[in-house]
Amino acid sequence: MLRLRYDTPPAWAATVMEHLDAFLQDHASNERKVSHSAMTLAAQHPDREDLVEAMISIAKEELEHFEQVFRLLQSRGVPLAHDAPDPYMGRLFKSVKTPDADAYLLDRLLLFGIVEARGCERFSLVGEALDDAALSAFYRELAASEARHHATYLTLARRYFARDRTDARLDTLLDLEAEVAAAMPIAPRLH
Ligand SMILES: [Fe+2]
Ligand SMILES: [Fe+2]
Fold first, then answer.
1. Residue 86 lies in a domain
2. Rounded to an integer, what distance in angstroms lies between the CA atom of residue 181 and that of residue 7?
3. Which ligand lies nearest the alpha carbon of 114?
4. How would DSSP label each residue in 84-122?
């Protein structure tokens, strides 16, 4: 598992516990969006069979996560919410290199991988903070799933691009993610 360069502070999980329904609404949106992103990546690379295979698996799992969080909201009598702007993702993806298709693909694989690692970190924190045993177990399972997604994106990046190039870009993007994550206000949101 990749070492992120910014540790989410304890105040974040405390805020999530105070506003759990709002967090669940944001979490549901995120799962739906990452499922969609995986399918978009597959659609843009029809010639890369292993990438398409991996994206189908990830998109299905993320959609299942969306359904699970949606059911959870229903059981709590809370509706889904409209998507809110996500400045974390906005700032990360603003830095994506688009001079050529290869650079664009490398950046997206690495950033998706980093975002999965952040999801894993935060779902683990939620799992630790929750008193409800079933809900805590659910978040620990999600954390494990996002860790696998993280590994899939990194493996794909390393399969398609030279080690030196991948590692150098990963180093830059990890610094960027740490800076962006640290700049976000503490809120009951995944990012
Ligand atoms: Fe997920
Ligand atoms: Fe994921």
1. no
2. 9
3. 2
4. PP-HHHHHHHHT---SSHHHHHHHHHHHHHHHHHHHHHH
Number of domains observed in the structure of the chain: 2
Residues in the chain: 191
pLDDT, residue 97, reads 76
Are residues 134 and 164 both part of a single domain? yes
**pLDDT tens digits, one per residue of 89-146:** 999 999 887 778 899 999 999 999 999 999 999 999 999 999 999 999 999 999 999 9
| Domain CATH code at residue 125 | 1.20.1260.10
Going from the Cα of 157 to the center of ligand 1, the distance in angstroms, rounded, reads 20
Residue 150 lies in domain: 99-184
The reported pLDDT for the residue numbered 1 is: 73
pLDDT of residue 167: 97
131-139 long-range contacts (CB < 8 A, ≥24 apart) are 135/72, 138/68, 138/72
Of all ligands present, the nearest one to the C-alpha of 32 is 1
Mean pLDDT of the chain: 96
Which of 9, 44, 79 is the last residue before a domain boundary? 79
Query: Does the residue 93 lie in any domain?
Result: no
